[in-house]
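hiii so um. not sure if this is the right channel but i have a protein structure encoded as tokens and i wanna go backwards to a sequence. like what aa goes where. can anyone help
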């Protein structure tokens, strides 16, 4: 807070927890006053949340936690104290929910590094009375997110809201560390935040942004417990890399090359001078798109196997349909009748129908993938620009080919009939 006192010619700058008095003497030059005020306003512009660290956190209770960590994702902090005599870990986990009314969670996973298998503490504000509460979840799968007993003992649980820290929630608890984890000297910790509560007391789905996927690591409990280390993320970085590869392969295949191949087939064949070059260009483009698409599809299967419980049903089902239709389309080329064959007409109907279905589904699924990956807006804008350019080229060629076809028909009708 900044208070100006014209009678005593003072400026009072009052941060949240400090009181500073800066006196402006009548003999001070105007430039000195401007410099002093500049520093004051610079201090005002620095948000307290920007400079927050685990050591700046304060919370209720008389317990002390000698060790703290600035967790690398989701603006979260962990304070803890490990008691080797009874292998118990006292923790305070702090994080802001993804949205007001959302939830936060901290977990130990005794069997893996991800969320499945995590023995989880979840905090949220009770919708009925607005009081922060903490629940336990034994997450056996992503479809089972209801309160349940943990695989190890936990006590002294409570939750609180830190209203002065932007709605941050805190989880207090003491957990019994399993013997096999004590022997290893570390525990796998997972933390998460979500935007809302689901029906029936279930927590809602969290986002799948890179920061959400990377919110895991290893908490070191070795030695004299003089500190802790947070590590991990290599596996998550590999998953993020595979997701990006999956997205790029499929965007290039179904979203770009297939439309280009369709444009070549529809418009180039109208020009007699382009025959049979248009056909080989069309086949080359579509075959390349199919090979790249199969690689992208296989990458998607691998991601699905590595992400048990995470399902994007519409994106997955469209991907399966695309792979199936494209595979049928490739094999159908081996059964392509000659131009004068009586079944060529029906083959053309099938070939064009399946081709346009692949074209439409491919573009739709690229946008669904972009919504899942949530990359920078420039990537989505770039793809929209590519599709718009291809659409503009198609409209221009549509007009040109109609002119060519109508002119050709007019010339043929003007030819004299032979007697």
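sure thing!! here u go:
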């Amino acid at each position: 807070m900044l208070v100006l006192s014209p009678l005593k010619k003072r400026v009072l700058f009052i941060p949240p927890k400090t009181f500073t008095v800066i006196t402006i003497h009548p003999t001070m030059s105007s430039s000195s006053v401007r410099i002093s005020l500049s520093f004051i306003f610079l201090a005002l512009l620095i948000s307290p949340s920007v400079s927050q660290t685990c050591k700046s956190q304060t919370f209720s209770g008389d317990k002390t936690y000698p060790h703290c960590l600035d967790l690398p994702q989701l603006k979260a902090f962990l304070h803890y104290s490990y008691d080797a005599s009874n292998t118990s870990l006292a923790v305070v986990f702090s994080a802001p929910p993804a949205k007001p009314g959302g939830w936060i969670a901290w977990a130990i996973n005794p069997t893996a590094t991800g969320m499945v298998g995590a023995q989880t503490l979840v905090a949220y504000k009770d919708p009925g009375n607005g009081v922060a509460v903490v629940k336990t979840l034994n997450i056996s799968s992503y479809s089972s997110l209801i309160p349940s007993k943990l695989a190890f003992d936990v006590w002294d649980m409570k939750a609180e809201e830190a209203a002065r820290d932007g709605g941050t929630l805190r989880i207090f608890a003491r957990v019994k560390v399993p013997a096999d984890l004590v022997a290893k000297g570390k525990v796998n910790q997972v933390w998460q935040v979500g935007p809302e509560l689901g029906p029936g007391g279930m927590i809602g789905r969290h986002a799948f942004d890179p920061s959400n996927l990377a919110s895991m690591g290893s908490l070191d409990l070795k030695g004299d417990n003089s500190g802790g280390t947070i590590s991990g993320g290599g596996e998550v970085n590999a998953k993020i890399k595979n997701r990006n590869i999956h997205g790029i392969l499929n965007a290039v295949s179904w979203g770009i090359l297939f439309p280009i191949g369709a444009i070549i087939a529809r418009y180039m064949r109208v020009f007699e001078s382009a025959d049979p070059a248009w056909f080989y260009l069309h086949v080359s483009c579509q075959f390349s798109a199919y090979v790249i698409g199969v690689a992208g599809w296989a990458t998607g299967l691998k991601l699905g196997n590595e992400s048990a419980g995470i399902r994007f049903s519409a994106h997955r089902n469209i991907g399966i349909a695309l792979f199936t239709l494209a595979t049928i389309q490739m094999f159908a080329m081996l059964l392509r009748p000659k131009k004068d064959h009586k079944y060529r007409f029906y083959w053309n109907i099938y070939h064009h129908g399946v081709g346009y279905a692949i074209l439409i589904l491919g573009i739709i699924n690229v946008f669904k993938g972009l919504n899942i990956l949530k990359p920078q807006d420039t990537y989505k804008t770039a793809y929209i620009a590519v599709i718009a350019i291809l659409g503009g080229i198609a409209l221009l060629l549509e007009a040109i080919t109609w002119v060519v076809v109508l002119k050709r028909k007019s010339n043929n009708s003007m030819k004299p009939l032979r007697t």
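oh and Residues 1-24, 33-51, 223-233 have pLDDT under 50 and may be disordered.
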